[in-house]
C-alpha cells in the first residue's frame, strides 16, 4: 500500500503541491487528473524522491521511500520527459536497465516489443515521440515494479497503440497486483482502466473518490418543461452548470435526490432524463464551479 502524508513542495515562486494526503491500495490503479500546471508531475516526482518534499513523507508498505534504495528498487517511474538517454542505442538502454533494476525481465521486454516493434539497434533520437513513449513504458513495466508511477504514458500515441498499451498495463496489474498511479489528460483512457480518481487543482486535492462514487455523486439531467422554465432556473443552487439547447436544458448537479426531482416537477418539468456523464465533464464542472 502507498501512503502519502501531508506532502508539500514549493519552487522559488510557486507552492506546487500543498499538504497532499492519499492512500493507494495494492493492486489498484489511481488516475491523477487536473488542468495544466495543477501539480501532477510535481506530485509524482516527489513521490519517487526526484524532488525532496518540504513537508511530509511517502511510504510503500510502511517503509519510507526517501533515501531508501531497497524500496526504490521496487518502484517504476515513467516521467513525462523521457530525454535522458537520447544518445543511447536502445539495446544499450536495455542493458543499463538490467544492471540498474534487479527485477528487470528482458524476456518480458522482448515479448512486449513483439507488439510495439521498436528497433533495438536505433538511437532514441531516431525514434518518433510515440515510439519513445512506448519504449519507456516497456522498460518501466519490464522492471517488474510493485509501485508503478506513469506520468502521461499515452501522450503522443495513436489510438491503436494506446489501446494496446492500456491492455498490456491492465493485464500486468491484474497478474502482479501492482499499485499504480497514472496521470493523463486523456480522461477517457483513465475512465477505462482506473478504479480510483483524484482531481488536483492549484496543488490541492479537490476530489478523491472511486470512479463509481464519482459517477453516483455527479449527474447530468436533461429537462424539458411543459411551458416556460422558472425564471431563475439556471441559477438554482442545486446546479453546477446549466446549458439551454432549444426547449431542453442540460443541468449538472451533485445533489440528484428526490427533493430535486419533486422541485422540478412542482415547477412544471414534463420530462427528466439522466444522461451519461464523462470524467472530462466531471473535471470541467468541478474545477469551474
Ligand atoms: N522545476 C520547477 N521549477 C519551478 N517551478 C516549477 C518546476 N516544476 C514545476 N513548476 C511549477 O509548479 C507548478 C506545477 O507544475 P507541474 O508540472 O507539476 O504541473 P502539471 O499538473 O504536471 O502540469 P501539466 O498538465 O501541464 O503537465 C506549475 O506552476 C509549474 O510552473
Automatic annotation (TrEMBL):
<keyword id="KW-0547">Nucleotide-binding</keyword>
<protein>
    <submittedName>
        <fullName>ABC transporter ATP-binding protein</fullName>
    </submittedName>
</protein>
<keyword id="KW-0067">ATP-binding</keyword>
Amino acid at each position: 500500500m502507498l501512503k502519502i502524508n501531508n506532502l508539500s513542495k514549493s519552487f522559488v515562486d510557486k507552492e506546487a503541491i500543498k499538504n497532499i494526503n492519499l492512500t493507494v491500495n495494492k493492486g489498484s490503479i489511481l488516475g491523477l487528473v487536473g488542468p495544466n500546471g495543477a501539480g501532477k508531475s510535481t506530485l509524482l516526482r516527489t513521490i519517487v524522491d526526484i524532488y525532496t518534499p518540504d513537508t511530509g513523507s511517502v511510504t510503500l508498505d510502511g517503509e519510507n521511500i526517501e533515501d531508501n534504495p531497497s524500496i526504490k528498487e521496487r518502484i517504476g517511474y515513467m516521467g513525462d520527459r523521457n530525454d535522458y538517454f537520447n544518445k543511447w542505442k536502445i539495446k544499450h538502454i536495455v542493458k543499463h536497465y538490467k544492471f540498474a533494476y534487479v527485477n528487470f525481465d528482458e524476456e518480458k521486454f522482448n515479448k512486449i516489443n513483439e507488439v510495439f516493434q521498436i528497433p533495438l539497434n536505433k538511437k532514441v533520437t531516431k525514434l518518433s515521440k510515440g515510439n519513445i513513449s512506448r519504449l519507456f513504458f516497456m522498460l518501466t513495466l519490464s522492471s517488474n515494479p510493485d509501485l508503478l508511477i506513469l506520468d502521461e504514458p499515452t501522450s503522443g500515441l495513436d489510438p491503436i497503440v494506446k489501446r494496446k498499451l492500456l491492455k498490456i498495463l491492465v493485464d500486468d496489474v491484474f497478474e502482479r497486483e501492482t499499485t499504480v498511479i497514472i496521470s493523463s489528460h486523456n480522461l477517457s483512457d483513465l475512465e477505462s482502466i482506473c478504479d480510483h480518481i483524484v482531481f488536483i487543482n492549484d496543488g490541492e486535492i479537490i476530489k478523491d473518490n472511486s470512479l463509481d462514487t464519482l459517477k453516483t455523486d455527479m449527474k447530468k439531467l436533461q429537462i424539458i418543461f411543459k411551458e416556460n422554465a422558472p425564471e431563475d432556473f439556471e441559477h438554482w443552487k442545486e446546479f453546477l452548470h446549466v446549458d439551454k439547447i432549444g426547449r431542453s436544458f442540460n443541468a449538472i448537479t451533485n445533489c440528484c435526490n428526490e427533493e430535486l426531482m419533486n422541485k422540478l416537477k412542482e415547477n412544471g418539468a414534463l420530462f427528466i432524463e439522466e444522461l451519461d456523464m464523462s470524467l472530462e465533464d466531471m473535471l470541467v464542472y468541478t474545477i469551474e464551479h
